[in-house]
């Protein structure tokens, strides 16, 4: 989520918590909403999907202490009228003064406009760009606070997706330098920046107001590399191919994205790594299909097995099971076997839905044909008429 969109969001409301909620309360609120509204739980429910997306977005911002502080600072300024209350006609102490409050927009706040409303050394984008680690004007841009996210795709067999699996992946991108262990320093001990005393920010006063901005000397990191590693040129990362093992949870569906925190590209100079997003594609199976967490299978049977009843063997994701077909079962009936469907994390598995379908023999030997004709005569003699209750019989 770009920071210039935060002004229109209420992340605490999206999670149903107060602005003073603890990190644990935020985590619990997100997990509850995710459990109740996940697309896997409510497939096709657009309202639930939107609720889930809002909660996920809010959790991404509020679960990170640094981004939460930036968000809270922005909302506090908006609530306090921090933009309209600066004064008019140059009375605020900023070069060129400010425009009327009604002239401001979200793009003004984040320095996206270039309409010349302010001089370069007093640009609004410079002030708030510094506040939110974006830079602007004559200030230096802060260095990334984490590594880049990485996206990749995999294709699984139906059974692997249903039961879950572990697969190896090879990723090429920024990884921690093996020589300096990601610090960027040959000695492994970066020095504290003297200009910001290691805070990563410098403060200055403009008129009646004080503002903080990323330190231009250290780029907002709070550290200075005085002995850069020769292998990575002081970046702390090198571009290389690495192998990781990815655990795909049971029950993933085709097109679903699995997020693995901290498995993306390494951050510069020991900063946290980004996340890895794996899009899962699932091959169709020759035997099974899915309906949510239920597993569906169609089993061919004979007429006599339905008429007389029989116990048949049915495949599952694991070992086959025995299913009793009651006498007189109609063709196309679906029998339910509890708990033998798709596994669910922290809950009971779905069910196995077995649909019986009569398979008619194409060739019968003389003995079978004679026996079948004898049965047909006995069937008629008993008064059985397969079309007795058929609506089409009335139109003959």
Describe the model.
With 396 residues, the chain is of the alpha+beta class. The protein has 3 domains: 3-131, DnaJ domain (Helix Hairpins, Orthogonal Bundle); 143-185 and 230-283, Urease metallochaperone UreE, N-terminal domain (HSP40/DNAj peptide-binding domain), CATH 2.60.260.20; 288-383, HSP40/DNAj peptide-binding domain, CATH 2.60.260.20. The chain has 9 helices and 15 strands. The strands form 6 sheets. It has a 4-stranded mixed beta sheet. Strands 1-9-8 form a 3-stranded mixed beta sheet. A two-stranded antiparallel sheet has the order 2-7. Residues 82-142 have low confidence and may be disordered.
Could you provide a short overview of the structure?
With 396 residues, this protein is α+β, with helices and mostly antiparallel strands. The chain is built from nine helices and 15 strands. The strands form six sheets. Strands 10-11-15-14 form a four-stranded mixed beta sheet.
Distance between the termini: 68 Å
Instruction: Write down the Rg.
Output: 33 Å
> Biggest sheet, strands in spatial order?
10-11-15-14
How large a portion of the residues is in β-strands, by DSSP E?
A: 15-25%
- The rough form would be described as elongated
**Series of H and E elements:** HHHHHHEHEEEEEEEEEEHEEEEH
Contiguous low-pLDDT stretches (5 residues minimum) are 82-142
Family: Belongs to the DnaJ family.
GO molecular function: ATP binding; heat shock protein binding; unfolded protein binding; zinc ion binding
Cofactor: Zn(2+)
GO biological process, one term: response to heat
């Amino acid at each position: 989520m770009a920071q210039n969109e935060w002004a229109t969001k209420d992340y605490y409301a999206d999670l149903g918590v107060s602005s003073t909620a603890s990190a644990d309360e935020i985590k619990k609120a997100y997990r509850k909403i995710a459990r109740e509204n996940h697309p896997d739980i409510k497939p096709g429910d657009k309202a639930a999907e939107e609720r889930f997306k809002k909660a996920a977005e809010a959790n991404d911002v509020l679960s990170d202490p640094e981004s939460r502080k930036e968000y809270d600072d922005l909302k506090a300024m908006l609530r306090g009228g921090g933009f309209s209350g600066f004064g008019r006609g140059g009375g605020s102490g900023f070069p060129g003064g400010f425009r009327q409050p009604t002239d401001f927009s979200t793009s003004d706040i984040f320095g996206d406009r270039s309409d010349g409303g302010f001089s370069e050394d007093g640009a609004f984008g410079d002030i708030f760009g510094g506040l939110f680690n974006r830079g602007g004007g004559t200030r230096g841009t802060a260095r990334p606070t984490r590594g880049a996210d990485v996206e990749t795709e995999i294709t699984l067999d139906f059974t692997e997706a249903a039961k879950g699996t572990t697969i190896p992946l090879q990723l090429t991108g920024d990884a921690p330098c093996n020589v300096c262990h990601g610090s960027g320093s040959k000695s492994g001990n970066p020095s504290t920046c003297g200009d910001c005393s290691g805070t990563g920010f410098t403060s200055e006063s403009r008129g009646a107001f004080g503002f903080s901005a990323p330190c231009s000397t250290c780029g907002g990191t709070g550290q200075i590399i005085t002995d850069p590693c020769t292998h990575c040129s002081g970046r702390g990362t090198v571009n290389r191919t690495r192998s990781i093992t990815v655990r795909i949870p049971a029950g993933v569906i085709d097109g679903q994205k699995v997020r693995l925190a901290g498995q993306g590209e390494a951050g510069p100079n020991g900063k946290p790594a980004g996340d890895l997003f794996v899009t899962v594609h699932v091959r169709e199976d020759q035997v099974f299909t899915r309906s949510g967490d239920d597993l569906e299978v169609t089993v061919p049977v004979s007429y006599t097995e339905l008429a007389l009843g029989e116990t048949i063997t049915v495949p599952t994701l694991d070992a086959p099971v025995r299913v009793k077909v009651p006498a007189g079962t109609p063709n196309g009936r679906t029998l339910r076997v509890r708990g033998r469907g798709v596994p669910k994390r922290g809950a009971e598995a779905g069910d196995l839905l077995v649909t019986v379908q009569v398979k008619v023999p194409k060739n019968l030997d003389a003995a079978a044909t004679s026996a079948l004709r004898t049965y047909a005569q006995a069937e008629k003699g008993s008064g059985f008429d397969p079309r007795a209750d058929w609506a089409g019989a009335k139109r003959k």
